[in-house]
Design goal:
CATH superfamily of the largest domain: Type I PLP-dependent aspartate aminotransferase-like (Major domain)
CATH class of the largest domain: Alpha Beta
CATH topology of the largest domain: Aspartate Aminotransferase, domain 2
Largest sheet: 7 strands, mixed
Shape: globular
Radius of gyration: 21 Å
Order of helices and strands: HHEHHEHEHEHEHEHEEHHHEHEEEH
Number of strands: 12
CATH architecture of the largest domain: 3-Layer(aba) Sandwich
Number of domains: 2
Length: 399
């Protein structure tokens, strides 16, 4: 048996998460004493709100949470998710069409696994989050990239989607606000894309994990609110991780048509059974408790967003569109490539990311993790002081 056949080809083909890899490297350098400032991880730097933590503490002491509960989630939590889905996504669903998952990643994986047959194509607006390609491939699907650059504010058009559509196209992935770009589709753009998907009988998987983190009065309109007829062919993915600073609690969910949710529920019953009950009780407190903490975090992100965009755009050769959602900026750095900086001449954003980590002790994720080269992703979910200092290091390096 050769080394390459010891494990399945399907699993061997999975790439490590690029964002987690860069973040781990930055943390290792920090642990070794280097003053690295990392913009790599996509997680709020705030603690989980106190009332959520207290709900978890109480849940630990309640013996009913020490036992198996329904694989699809606690009924009271699914009721709260249904209320949020109606409020924020404009979709009314019974709790039978909701599954609580171990983070948004499990919901993404199960959505693709439920819908795709081998060879089915998924239209993926690009740049994209690093997990989508692996989830699509594991389900036997084929990813079809539809790229929009900084000149389009990273927003694809109906014409681009139509040009990429083939008889094998089955699913459209729709993400607004976006990771990695922070781009938000306008209500008009969302409606146009939704109507196009409906006209061609496509399924839609819409990742709404950042829907409550928008700025400048912008609202991320759900595609099922813009085009209600799509509800029977749409799976919504969401969770508490980003809005409530609960990345480590691993609590997400999926909402969709009865047949798709039934299939995904069967899968989850064998894959994980129920999500940790303590995390479920904490998520219930997050969704039903005070929301002022959410607004305070959103305002802090907004302040940081303005600073990082302004400071990055002071660097000649860097073009940073202003994001309207999430907590990332995605500058076009092609103007820095092919030039010599500190004795090094990077030709790709991967090489550029290595350069700035080595010479400026700043960690960012290269565009290759999200699609084409020529871009860097910076998370601004870190403290105000290190956020500014890191960009000032880059200003000095590229002066």
């Amino acid at each position: 048996m050769t080394e390459s056949t010891r494990i399945s080809a399907r699993i061997a083909a999975i790439a490590e998460s690029a964002t987690l890899k860069v973040d781990a490297k930055a943390k290792a350098l920090q642990a070794a004493g280097r003053p690295v400032i990392s913009y790599a991880a996509g997680e709020p730097d705030f603690p989980t709100p106190e009332h959520v933590v207290e709900a978890a503490v109480a849940a630990v002491r309640d013996p009913k949470n020490h036992r198996y509960t329904p694989a699809v989630g606690l009924p009271e939590l699914r009721e709260a998710i249904a209320a949020k889905t109606l409020r924020d996504s404009g979709l009314e669903v019974p709790i039978s069409q909701i599954i609580v998952t171990n983070g948004g990643k499990q919901a993404v994986y199960q959505a693709f696994a439920t819908l795709l047959n081998p060879g089915d194509e998924v239209l993926v607006p690009t740049p994209y989050w690093t997990t989508y390609p692996e989830a699509i491939a594991l389900a036997g699907g084929k990813q079809v990239d539809v790229f929009a650059g900084a000149d389009q504010n990273y927003l694809v058009t109906v014409d681009q989607l139509e040009a990429a559509r083939t008889p094998r196209s089955k699913v459209l992935l729709f993400v607004s606000p976006s990771n990695p770009t922070g781009a938000v589709y306008s209500p008009e753009q969302t409606k146009a894309i939704g109507e196009w998907a409906e006209a061609h009988g496509l399924w839609v998987i819409t990742d709404e994990i950042y829907q409550n983190l928008t700025y400048d009065g912008v609202r991320a309109v759900s595609i099922v609110e813009a085009v209600p007829a799509l509800a029977d062919r749409t799976i919504l993915v969401n969770g508490v991780a980003k809005t409530y600073a609960m990345t480590g609690w691993r609590l997400g969910w999926m909402v969709g048509p009865a047949d798709a949710i039934k299939g995904a529920a069967n899968l989850q019953s064998h894959l994980t059974s129920n999500v940790n009950n303590i995390a479920q009780r904490a998520a219930l407190a997050a969704l039903t408790g005070p929301q002022d903490c959410v607004e305070e975090m959103r305002q802090a992100f907004d302040r940081r967003r303005k600073v990082i965009v302004a400071e990055l755009n002071k660097i000649p050769g860097v073009v940073t569109p202003t994001p309207e959602g999430a907590f990332y900026v995605y500058p076009d750095v092609t103007g820095l490539l092919g030039k010599t900086w500190g004795g090094v001449t990077p030709t790709t954003s991967l090489e550029l990311a290595d350069l700035i980590l080595d010479q400026a002790e700043v960690a960012a994720v290269p565009g290759e993790a999200f699609g084409p080269s020529g871009y860097l992703r910076f998370s601004y979910a870190l403290g105000d002081a290190p956020l500014l200092e890191g960009i000032q290091r880059l200003q000095k390096l590229f002066s």
